[in-house]
Amino acid sequence: MTHKFGRISAALLASTIAGSALAQDNSVTIVLSEELDVVEPCMTSRSNIGRVIQQNISETVTELVPGEGLQPRLATSWEDMGGGTWRFALREGVTFSDGTTFGAEDVAHSIARTTGDAIVCEIGAKFFGGMEITTEIVDEHTIDITADPAQPILPLLMSTMTVVPSETPMDSFVDTPIGTGPYTFDEYNVGQNIKLSVRDDYWGDAPVVQSATYVFRSDSAVRAAMVKTGEADIAPNIALQDATDPDMDYSYPNSETVYLRVDNMTAPLNDVRVRQALNHAVDREAFIGTILADGTLLATGMTPPSTIGYNHDLTPYAYDPDKAKALLAEAKADGVPVDQTITLIGRTNNFGNVLETMEAMLQMFQDAGFNMELQMYEVAEWENFYSKPFAEDRGPTMVQAMHDNANGDPVFSMYFKYHSDGLQSGTTDATIDDMIAAATAATGDKREQLWSELFAYIHGEAVTDVLLFHMVGFSRVNPRLDFAPTIKTNSELQLSQIAFK
Amino acid sequence: MKSFLGQRAIASAISLVALIVLVFFLSRLTGDPTTLYLPVDASLESREQFRKLHGLNDPLIVQFGRYVGDLIRLDFGESIRRSEPALDAVLRAFVWTLQLAVITMALVTAAAIVLGSLAAFKVGGLFDRIATFFSLIGASAPDFWIAIVAIVIFSVNLGWVPTSGTGSVWHWILPISVLFIRPFGLILQIVRGSMITALSSAYVKTARAKGVRNRPIIFVHALRNAMLPVITVIGDQAAALLNGAVVVETVFGFPGVGKLMIDSILQRDFTVVLAAIFVTAVAIFLMNILIDILYAVLDPRIRY
Questions:
Q1: What ipTM goes with this model?
Q2: pLDDT band at residue A17, thresholds of 50, 70 and 90?
């Protein structure tokens, strides 16, 4: 019996050692939080799909690099031709992993496919809604792209546009993506793993990582354990409570902003003093390092601080319950029905400790004199409160939400969240509408300035909502790797940026 | 027997149809998949396009009619999220669950019968007390806690087995061990109780008086008669596993039907939900038939 146990133990040990030995070569294993539903390049704005495919398999026309701004990728340069048209010069000598040559026709096909109506692509729905994109091929490596209405940030929008070969079907998703990136999509063992391997004919620098295997585990503790044991090299997304090893765990700004969207159209929330009182009632500092991670930043704007035009001069509302009470009393004296019950709506599982955060905030609001109740909803029900059309008989509501903008420009956020016609806007303010229109149309320094002014107006004058936190994410990385997560890790994970120590 | 099987098949088919109709309409009450499939920033046009592509704009009765028409050809439709036939996704996952369930229940049955019988042989003895103590702990400990603790101890600290996954035989050890514990505790208690009754029966006393040794008394005479309630519970536990060992599948990254079903419910992937319910219901129906046959094999008095 003892011998049998010994043999089994030895076999297990050998297996473990063999597994570890495999992990010592130039391949990496990445453990993701959920299996990919599809492996379609036009869906890479979904985090886990993006982490596998974007820039590894399918490259974008341009690329937004943290700290460096918009950079060439498949396009080498671009020029504003006026009238909403931009001319992109495309890289020559690029081939797809199936051997075909990349050119303007592929870009035109990719844009038509992503923004067309034969399939619903998340990139099209998320970044190209409400506009018509047309293309005209100038020559094999030059293309004119026109947006109607005109989009001054069209080159930035092209940083979301993944390029597929022109033979890719218009009316169905692909199950083996083909791209111009440094890796080929080798196999997808559904339910188990995805495997990529490096191309030897990639147009750019040859990556160090020769192959990658992606596996899927829903449980954060298991993902963390896999990196700890050497079964995996990177867990891009682990929970705060599992990030316990300073040698392996990294925190990074994950481009998510948490806020309470206030219904500015319904009494008593249509009174600016009430909204100011809401802002003064929350002790934002008390959450950080307790139920939210150290490194979480207090928000004064809807987008992360790395976004252009973010107004760094703004300061968060001070925690001042006495001032909140005074503002409420002043509003009440003017006939504002401040005693009316306000419904605070939260989204379950939106981020770690969301329930605790909402309950603590409810208590703070009640301590400041608000008559408020909390309702937590699962995402599909929550969406009915968050997006228009709003129910007529909704009463005064505040909706907790977390918004992601890793794209470097507020335009991806401000229209939806603040314009009178914005899908999730809780306000109808003509000044805001005009400021969004002006900033959206501007370019360069002027654009930055106009966004900055809009942030200041929303935060200081309109006080449309209760801005709370810029969140941080946690990744666990095997110490054998030379890799540090960035804000982009929330949406992509370029294998070519990984090296070995 | 043939007429019994026919009657059971008809009764099960009626139940299955009622279940599918119920689930079809109840699942539609849970909300619009558009809100989950598309990003919250998606335009109203994109949402409309999505609904149109997936027939979600049609009246519910029209959607149901279309669904029934397809179902007659065993076509459950395309998964909204996975862009593949729903039945393919379910059958692929069900194979994993079936393997997990069969291996686990085989081990549970063998261990619980042997240890439960031995515990019943000397009630109150040391073996009985130990078996009862551990079986009660096993029957009451939560799966998710055991799973995480097992990973921490056996994978992270001792490094004996992989944390999760399906790559080799070693990957199956922890999931099966965790799944084993709860039904083992329950079935061991049932075997023990049933065997205590059987061992106090007149025919056992007669066998003892005739000088028959303990082993044949326990495992031949008493056990066969004690097995009927045990089989019922084994069937119940196996049915629970066939429905999917959601916690174990989730923690250990097993791509089984339980996790698929939960994910599909949360994502409002209606076609997959219905296909998963259909497949598991058919499997449970077949298993119940098997149990009925086993009753007749074990007890000659039972005839259909």
A1: 0.82
A2: very low
